[in-house]
Amino acid sequence: MITQVTKGIKISVATSFEGTFFKNYKTHFAFGYTISIENQSKHSVQLTSRHWQIFDALNEMEILDGEGVIGKKPVIKPGQSHTYSSGCLLSSPIGSMKGYFNMVNFTTTEKFRVYVPVFKFSAPFALN
């Protein structure tokens, strides 16, 4: 598991290989990831949006921006956490993601970024 703390918000990421499938005459590699966002600060915060950079060994980097995570904009009180799972498809058995969450501190109304460290994807058969 990969972890990183930014401004009292701890991000933990675990990844998994979900399998391969064939679509539109092309093989795709499915990866899952679970992210836990733990509020170790003294203030309630809300996740408002996300930014991802997805690296695929066989393709250009893909950038994705969106509101919240999996349709939610969670409010996380001090000492609490929010965990969600998602996934991505790659054309290669090896890749990675990194990014950040845009957050708002409810006490100070400060907007800030919480960085998600690079997390890697690799199919079990791809590396020795």
UniProtKB/TrEMBL annotation:
Q: Which Gene3D superfamilies match?
A: ApaG domain (2.60.40.1470)
Cited InterPro entries: ApaG_domain (IPR007474), ApaG_sf (IPR036767)
GO biological process terms held by the UniProt record: error-free translesion synthesis
One of its Pfam families is DUF525
Q: Which residues form the ApaG domain?
A: 3-128
Q: What is this protein called?
A: Co2+/Mg2+ efflux protein ApaG
Native organism is Muriicola soli
Q: Which gene encodes it?
A: apaG
